[in-house]
Structure formats: structure tokens, C-alpha cells
Design goal:
Blueprint (H helix, E strand, L loop, with lengths): L15 H51 L23 E6 L13 E2 L3 H4 L19 H4 L23 E7 L19 E4 L2 E4 L2 E4 L19 E6 L4 E5 L9 H8 L3 H17 L16
Antiparallel strand pairs: 1-2, 1-3, 3-6, 4-5, 6-7, 7-8
Length: 292
């Protein structure tokens, strides 16, 4: 007499050891792939930022065509101070009436690249780098008048009272030679530094804000890269080795204790580095000593 064999359990499943092995493999793959994904995401932001600056460069050229060849710049203060607002590199777009360094004299007006928003670049998104770690579009764009008026009466202005800042440092008339202070796009001149001719070519870059408070020490792309916009609307990406296209924290700290000359000199060197980068490397730029 034969006895029937017990039916074999054919249900599929994992043992605990097998499950732990699978989980370990997945964790290992994630640890390998995440840095690559982060780099790819940051690279895409760098490309978007580069495109923004190129469109800003085109907007500057169109503005110059309509304004006797001149680049956009901020208004002169109503009351004279050491430096006019249009002689400082800035990432400011709008002057509110909250008595900041410049807007205490020139209120309720667009300034710097903000003047393009009223004329040739109606898309506010273009003034913000997707990798800006501080002055992002969500915080700053609501401070900009969306109707893009040429001027708002400060006495009746109860909405757009705060200054508004974008992500890109715009040179305006900063560090131009004496014979080019009018800011004609085709005649920005050159500096002769240690016998080296450095033509003024850089108009904007995504780097530190020119400000004294802690929130102004923002950087784009974690300070590792910087896109530089040149006057022909071309944009080049540079690795910001040794902070050659940025302002160091030490400079801001010196300015915060009253040594404003330190930040002015550092900005002049930064702009010289950016100028020299046209067709070359910012790391090879000659060193200057600026006296304002």
C-alpha cells in the first residue's frame, strides 16, 4: 500500500536573510546614485541660470538701442552722497521707501537690471537664479510692482515699500574708466593694470550680493560656479576656484565694522577678474589696488 506524498508548499517568498540582502543592495545603489542625481540637478540649474543671463544680455542690448547706446542703470540720488546709486554694482531691482542705503535718497523707482523689467524684459523670472540660496523669487518678486510703472508716488505707495533684489550682480557704472563713465555699451573702455590691457566686457554675474547684513551674503550654485554675462550677450560658466568671482566673508565683515573701502576694492577686483575672463581665465587677471 502506497501512501500519498505530502504536497510540497510551492508558495514563493523571501527568507529574512534574502530580504536583508535586497534592502542592503537598494541602499547601496541609492548611496551611489544620489550624488550623481544632485550633480545633474545642479547642472540643470546652472544651464537655466546661463540662459537667464543670456536673455538679460539681449535685453540690455535692446535697451541700449532705444536709449542712445547707454546701458540701464539706477537713478542718481536726490541728495548727493559719496557714490551715486548708479555707480555701485548691485543686484537690486526696485527701490522701495524703507530708507535703505540708496533708497533713502531715491525711492519708489526701478534700478539696475530692474529697469529692463519696465522696458525689454517683462518676465520677472529671468532675474532669479534657480540656485540662489537666499534672495529667491518667492520672497523678492512680490515686492516688485507688476504693472511696471516708470515711477510710483512714494506718498501713496503702501504696497511696494520694500526694496527688491534679484540674483544677479549687475555692474552698472562700477569700475569703468574715466572716459567711459556715461555707460555707452559700445565704448566701455579698458583699464591698464601692470601694463596689461583689460577691456571692460563683463556686465553681470551670479555671485554675492553687495550688502552688509547677514542675509546679503548669499551665493548662487553654492559658490562653486559663476556664470558671467559679457557685453555681446554671451555667457560663460567658470569654476569659482579661490572665490575669484565672489566676495569673501572677510570682506563683508570688514565693511560691517565701517571699512567700506574694503568692499569697494574687492568689488573692483571681482569685476576686473570677470572682465579678464572674456576669452581667458578670471584666475589669471592682474591684481589691482583701487582708490575711490
Amino acid at each position: 500500500m502506497t501512501h500519498p506524498r505530502p504536497e510540497r508548499d510551492n508558495r514563493n517568498g523571501f527568507t529574512l536573510v534574502e530580504l536583508l540582502v535586497v534592502v542592503s543592495i537598494i541602499a547601496l545603489l541609492i548611496s551611489i546614485l544620489l550624488p550623481s542625481l544632485r550633480r545633474a540637478r545642479e547642472q540643470s540649474k546652472l544651464v537655466v541660470c546661463k540662459s537667464n543671463l543670456h536673455q538679460i544680455g539681449t535685453g540690455i542690448q535692446l535697451y541700449a538701442q532705444d536709449n542712445l547706446g547707454l546701458i540701464p542703470r539706477g537713478p542718481e540720488p536726490a541728495m548727493p552722497i559719496d557714490l551715486g546709486g548708479n555707480h555701485l554694482a548691485t543686484n537690486q531691482l526696485w527701490l522701495g521707501n524703507n530708507a535703505s542705503f540708496v533708497s533713502m535718497f531715491s525711492q519708489c523707482q526701478f534700478t539696475g537690471l530692474g529697469m529692463l523689467y519696465t522696458t525689454t524684459i517683462p518676465d520677472l523670472n529671468l532675474f532669479f537664479c534657480p540656485s540662489d540660496n537666499s534672495f529667491n523669487r518667492t520672497e523678492e518678486s512680490p515686492k516688485v510692482p507688476t504693472s511696471r510703472p516708470n515711477e510710483i508716488d512714494c506718498e501713496s505707495n503702501t504696497t511696494f515699500t520694500d526694496d527688491a533684489f534679484g540674483s544677479y550682480q549687475y555692474r552698472q557704472l562700477d569700475n569703468l574708466p574715466e572716459n567711459a563713465t556715461t555707460g555707452n555699451l559700445d565704448r566701455l573702455g579698458f583699464h591698464l593694470i601692470d601694463g596689461i590691457k583689460v577691456r571692460v566686457t563683463a556686465l553681470a554675474m551670479d555671485t554675492n550680493a553687495l550688502g552688509l547684513d547677514e542675509d546679503s551674503h548669499h551665493t548662487n550654485h553654492k559658490g562653486e560656479f559663476s556664470n558671467v554675462l559679457f557685453k555681446d550677450a554671451s555667457v560663460t560658466t567658470f569654476r569659482n576656484r579661490d572665490n575669484v568671482l565672489g566676495l569673501s566673508r572677510e570682506v563683508f565683515e570688514q565693511a560691517a565694522v565701517g571699512n567700506l573701502q574694503a568692499i569697494f576694492e574687492a568689488m573692483d577686483q571681482l569685476l576686473t577678474n570677470a572682465d579678464f575672463a572674456y576669452g581667458s581665465s578670471p584666475h589669471d587677471a592682474p591684481t589691482i589696488q583701487t582708490a575711490r
